[in-house]
């Protein structure tokens, strides 16, 4: 009987020590985030992807985190898109008390480089960079696509809108 108790105690100790090691490893990973996103050329100036949109290679984006209390910048990091228009960046640290967002910096295409100046149309993607937010994946954050706009919408835009059942408020 005593040997069963010792065996049970030994097995329990081994299990608990291995769980503690896993918990410590996971806690270290909670302050490391992989951010993924993409940048496109908005050929219809509607600020969402259509079949006419093109993803941009060489576009620059910037991650900026600001203090919720006084608005000071606490983190800035830039990335450049690859040939598929995608970018990745790694960020360390918990930014729960900050507002973090990705913004467009520079377009590689001079014909597609407009960014809306209107506050309500601001092309930025907010992102949560904390493990204390209820998001199951603590490592990867996928950001909404960001788009530069052409100066004049493509003549094909009305047909593209009609295909998806949208009637724009503007005339092309």
Automatic annotation (TrEMBL):
Q: Which PROSITE patterns match?
A: OLEEI
Which InterPro entries does this one have?
A: Allergen_Ole_e_I_CS, Pollen_Ole_e1_allergen
Coiled-coil features, chain-numbered ranges = none
Which of UniProt's keywords are assigned here? Disulfide bond, Signal
Q: Where is the signal peptide?
A: 1-27
The record's family statement is:
Belongs to the Ole e I family.
Instruction: Please report the name of this protein according to its UniProt entry.
Output: Pollen-specific protein-like At4g18596
Origin organism of this chain? Camelina sativa (False flax)
